[in-house]
Amino acid sequence: MSVIPGAWQRAARGAGLLSADGVPAPTIFAEMSALAARTGAINLGQGFPDEDGPAEVLEAARAAIAHGGNQYPPGRGTADLLTAVAEHQERFYGLRLDPEREVLITAGATEALAAALLALLGDPDDEVVVFEPFYDAYAALVALAGARLVTVPLRRPDFQPDIDELRRAVGDRTRVILVNDPHNPTGTVLSAEVRSEIVRLAHHHDALIVTDEVYEHLVFDGAHVPIATLPGAAERTLTISSGGKTFATTGWKIGWLSAPAPLVDAVLAVKQWLTYVNGAPFQPAIAVGLRLPDDVFTGIAARLREKRDVLGAGLTAAGFEVSVPRGSYFTVADAAPLLRTGEDAADFCRALPGRTGVVAIPLTAFVTPAQRADYATLVRFAACKRLDVIAEASNRLAGLGA
Ligand SMILES: Cc1ncc(COP(=O)(O)O)c(C=O)c1O
To answer: Is the pLDDT of residue 302 over 90?
Structure first.
């Protein structure tokens, strides 16, 4: 039987996301996690925590299951979680939202991104400006929506975009500026200047801003600043987050989006045909999480900061040049001093489990093919693991230079 390529297959082949015969190439994440499982290496590749988050959140999910919260929730999300998201946006950022019209619960941030891009993009000439490297779903979702990806590079040492390059990338075809702050994979937090320029450009070119802030509570110096809080931004910004990273519940896939009501309605029109709804017993549990006291949130960030510091020290001692992240689960390190002749970071990462028993991801997994050369020596390590695991990984990596 031959498979007739659907719209996404055609778009994905064009974007280099599928092989010529339409088979999805195994992602580097799947390859590296399989390698970790096969070799027993410590997996600092994929970004998921290896210990539980707040006990109250876990207990609330158990209670919801025990008390019958197991059927379809309402299409926009449970009233309690919608309210908790609105309260959270006001408590932390001073943003006032109508929970019934300006908030939508989604199957993780990923579904919010997918539904938003499918809702907002329609014309093959529509462009989405995104900072590169980027969370790998972005290119796939822009291809799925049939639009064009335009990238602005983030370069070492601080991974801030060059303002002139950003200005050149945004034009009258730009429908969406897709932001991720704090940023995966670089751990950068956008500067105030970059944030304001994004809003200015969005106004000037009548574009929308879709901002993925899943690491909003994992910022190491100072407080997170959502783009929607900038003057003139809220009216054209769709803010996306999820409970997975903050509460160490990545498998629950409870996300949300907030925006002006007509934009939320447009996203809901797509979302209702994707998953319709998800995670009934997890929605009240994430609502409990969002209402936890401030010190729980600062504690979560402080613990991750400590892990970042231990990982950074271990990587530096092993001979990497480390870019100190200001947020997120991740640390990027330059492996150039450790590469063997002819090796790039992808070869290095494939060999690393055998050499030292540690798994990491080459940064080229997060860039378009044309940009690979610029990131060829960089490696992403996940710091969201137990401290003893990070310490053991550091011990193992210390043998690299030998
Ligand atoms: C930047 C970014 N956005 C979204 C996601 C996915 O979020 P969720 O699991 O809530 O769909 C991730 C997960 O790694 C991420 O790094």
So the answer is: yes
H-type alpha helices, 319-402: 345-356, 387-397
CATH of 55-293, one of 3.40.50.300, 3.40.1280.10, 3.40.50.2000, 3.40.640.10: 3.40.640.10
Predicted confidence at residue 327, as pLDDT, reads: 97
In this prediction, residue 31 carries a pLDDT of 87
pLDDT at 2 over 60: no
Asked whether residue 331 carries a pLDDT value surpassing 70, the answer given is yes
Q: 340 CA to middle of ligand 1, Å?
A: 33
Pocket probe for ligand 1: among 85, 135, 216, 240, the residue whose CB has the most ligand atoms within 8 Å is: 135
In the chain, the amino acid numbered 323 is S
CATH class of 7-52+295-401: alpha beta
In the chain, domain spans: 7-52+295-401, 55-293
**CA of 339 relative to ligand 1 center, distance in Å:** 30
Nearest alpha carbon, ligand 1 atom 14? 47
Give me the pLDDT at residue 1, please.
Answer: 53
Main-chain dihedrals φ then ψ at residue 127, nearest 5 degrees: -115, 145
Burial tier of 233 (Cβ tally within 10 Å: 0-12, 13-18, 19+): buried
pLDDT band at 399 (very low <50, low <70, confident <90, very high): confident
Q: How far is the CA of 201 from the centre of ligand 1 (A)?
A: 26
Read off the pLDDT of each residue in 274-291 and give the average, rounded to a whole number: 98
Within 6 A (CB) of ligand 1 lie 47, 108-110, 135, 180, 184, 212, 214, 242, 244, 250, 253, 255
Pocket test for ligand 1, best of 179, 212, 214 (most atoms within 8 A of CB): 214
pTM here is 0.96
Q: Which residues are CB-neighbours of 55 under 8 A, at least 6 positions away?
A: none
CA of 97 to the centre of ligand 1 (A): 23
**pLDDT score for 27:** 79
Q: What is the pLDDT of residue 17?
A: 65
Spatial separation of the C-alpha atoms in residues 118 and 271, rounded to whole Å: 9
Question: Cα-flanking dihedrals φ and ψ of residue 376, to 5°?
Answer: -65, -15
